[in-house]
Amino acid sequence: MIAQAAGVIIGGAIGAWIGSSRSCTTGACPLTSNPYLGAIYGGLMGFLIVSALMSHAATSWKTSMEDSTMNAVTQIASQNHFKEQVLDADVPVLVDMWATWCGPCRAQMPIVEQVAEQVGDKARVVKVNVDDVADVAMDLDVRSIPTLIVFKGGKEQSRFVGVQSADVLSRALGV
Predict the structure, then answer these.
(1) Domain ranges in the chain?
(2) Cα angle, residue 117 at apex, residues 114 and 121 outer, rounded to 5°
(3) Active-site residue (options: 8, 16, 94, 105)
(4) Which listed residue (102, 161, 163, 166) is catalytic?
(5) In terms of pTM, does the model score above 0.70?
(6) Can 24 be counted among the known catalytic residues?
(7) Could you give the angle at the alpha carbon of 73 between the alpha carbons of 69 and 77, nearest 5°?
(8) Topology of the domain covering 69-173
(9) Mind listing the pLDDT tens digit for each residue in 40-54?
(10) Could you give the CA distance from residue 57 to residue 70 in angstroms, rounded to a whole number?
């Protein structure tokens, strides 16, 4: 809250300065045409910018905390890592295509972890962040997330788009 108030104050001061230092002769700049409107506009922009930065920082922290608790799920880091963990696997593999900014992906996360714990050594569960490993997402023609793909013997067996239940995913893995 303090950071957002500071954003309003700083943004308002900058907006007031812009409003007082320029004269709008074209009529195309009504939000900064005088110091009062400039202060209101700048304060609003300062609030929005600080709020967005705070939201991103909170999301990054929460994601790093959640990623550290995923013991049974392997995070794929590269195309070669994907080949080793999925295509060359001797057990069925559930691939969760996701992104940190995706709300449904975040809802799917505990379900995927539950499936990983249920299947144990009978299957493997991996996650691919489509922002970090975009080449894998493109190779698999992933157009929407969350997308969950089951591989057996290096070949795609089934594909699900959207949040799925643990039962559906376990049955698809065949374990």
Answers:
(1) 2-63, 69-173
(2) 145
(3) 105
(4) 102
(5) no
(6) no
(7) 100
(8) Glutaredoxin (3.40.30)
(9) 777 667 677 777 777
(10) 20
